Amino acid sequence: MSLPTAERFLTDAEKKQVKAAIAAAELRTSGEIRVHLEDHIEEDVLDHAAFVFEELDMHRTRDRNGVLIYLSVVDRKVAVIGDAGINAVVPEGFWTDVVAILKLHLAAGHHGQGIAEAVHHVGEKLVSFFPLLHDDTDELPNEISYGKR
Ligand code: CA
Ligand code: CA
Questions:
Q1: Domains in the chain, please, with CATH?
Q2: Ligand 1: centre distance to CA 32 (Å)
Q3: Which helix (H) or strand (E) holds 51?
Q4: Does the model's pTM come out above 0.85?
Q5: Ligand 2: distance of its center to the CA of 138 in Å?
Q6: How far is the CA of 1 from the centre of ligand 2 (A)?
Q7: What is the pLDDT along the chain (149 residues), one digit of tens a residue?
Q8: Number of H helices, E strands in the chain
Q9: Nearest ligand to the C-alpha of residue 141?
Q10: Counting ligands in written order, which one lies closest to the CA of residue 145?
């Protein structure tokens, strides 16, 4: 049986690269980053990413500072959304540049590098608002998750 498109979107090496990027970013910020890949969606990508955010229980962080990088791989729809604790303190359009960077890389076929860089940028942008605390725990898994449609 062949894997769905989303699970084939990254090579095994790229999957490792993305997980390592999440772990590295979370050494600098208390924010929790997740990456979710799906094949295809019909609906608005921001609305759908918000739905996935809930499905993944990403609101279950102490400081409400989870960030989801969402990508539907067939239609190349990208969204970056943060939880309420982030939205309360950052300016509007805070993630716009991250989305742009990711889209550029995807258009060039640099899937793993693009997602890893997006993770890195999300982490760096979170550092000043949510620096790592001495009692930090890994509140959300650093694994890539997949949705099947
Ligand atoms: Ca953490
Ligand atoms: Ca984590």
A1: 6-134 (3.10.310.50)
A2: 6
A3: helix 45-55
A4: yes
A5: 5
A6: 31
A7: 567 799 999 999 999 999 999 999 999 999 999 999 999 999 999 999 999 999 999 999 999 999 999 999 999 999 999 999 999 999 999 999 999 999 999 999 999 999 999 999 999 999 999 999 999 999 999 999 999 65
A8: 6, 4
A9: 2
A10: 2
In degrees, rounded to 5, the angle at the alpha carbon of residue 81 between the alpha carbons of residues 146 and 102 is 70
Can you read off the two tokens belonging to residue 143?
């694994």
* DSSP state letters, 53-113: HHHTTTT-STTS-EEEEEEETTTTEEEEEE-HHHHTTS-TTTTHHHHHHHHHHHHTT-HHH
Cα 136 to averaged position of ligand 1 atoms, centre (Å): 5
**Phi-psi map region of 34: left, alpha, beta (phi>0 left; psi -120 to 50 alpha):** beta
Comparing C-alpha atoms, which of 50, 41, 40, 27 is closest to residue 142? 27
Q: Which two tokens stand for residue 99?
A: 């989305």
What spacing in Å lies between the alpha carbon of 91 and ligand 1's midpoint? 23
CB atoms within 10 A of CB 55: 11
Kindly list the distances between the CA atom of residue 62 and the CA atoms of 54, 57, 65, 133, 142, in Å, as whole numbers in the listed order: 15, 12, 8, 12, 17
